[in-house]
Amino acid sequence: MDYNQEHTYGSDETLRDSAPVIGAASWGATEKFRKPFMMGEFGIDWKRGDNDHDPKGIGTNMHNGMWAAVASRSFGTASLWYWDGYVDPLNMYGQFDLISRFAKKIDWTHFNPTRPTVEPLAWVTPPAGKIFGELSINPVYDWRREPDAVLSVNQDGTVSGAHRPTSSSAHPSPTSSRL
Fold first, then answer.
1. pTM for this one?
2. Which of 4, 100, 112, 114 has its CA 20 to 30 A from that of 106?
3. Contact call for residues 30 and 38 (beta carbons, < 8 A)
4. Has residue 5 got a pLDDT over 90?
5. Strand locations in 81-160, DSSP E?
6. Residue 135: count of CB within 10 angstroms of its CB
């Protein structure tokens, strides 16, 4: 066998973000078999297209799945299955632009990522309904690097880690530090 491949789907929104599954599959397969790996197909739900779970085409699962594959030794991006009812009608081709530009700059023959150590995110109280959406953080500091390089969103929705208030009109302070 020259390479191995896997497909993964959730069921009824049990897999809202495929990134952890794709990353684990890629790391596991490349370590176990010592062969190239690719996540062939993936989606939120095997019974319904991702468009049913993300009708606005935000593309969180698609984005995270593609980047998780590239960052975890896959020899290509993971391949979202729902092209005809999701990617094409919602014109989500822009999702491929940044990852394509990134991939063109990597020397893949010498690329050797290391497995990250990350604590899983957990909801304190699960939100009602679907959780896809955007998170916007308006910084209250200059665009210089913070000494600790950490910006935290706390469980109560407040943001901590912004140490230098700014008076610059280019980066106005938000009216509230609460999300």
1. 0.63
2. 4
3. no
4. yes
5. 152-153, 159-160
6. 6
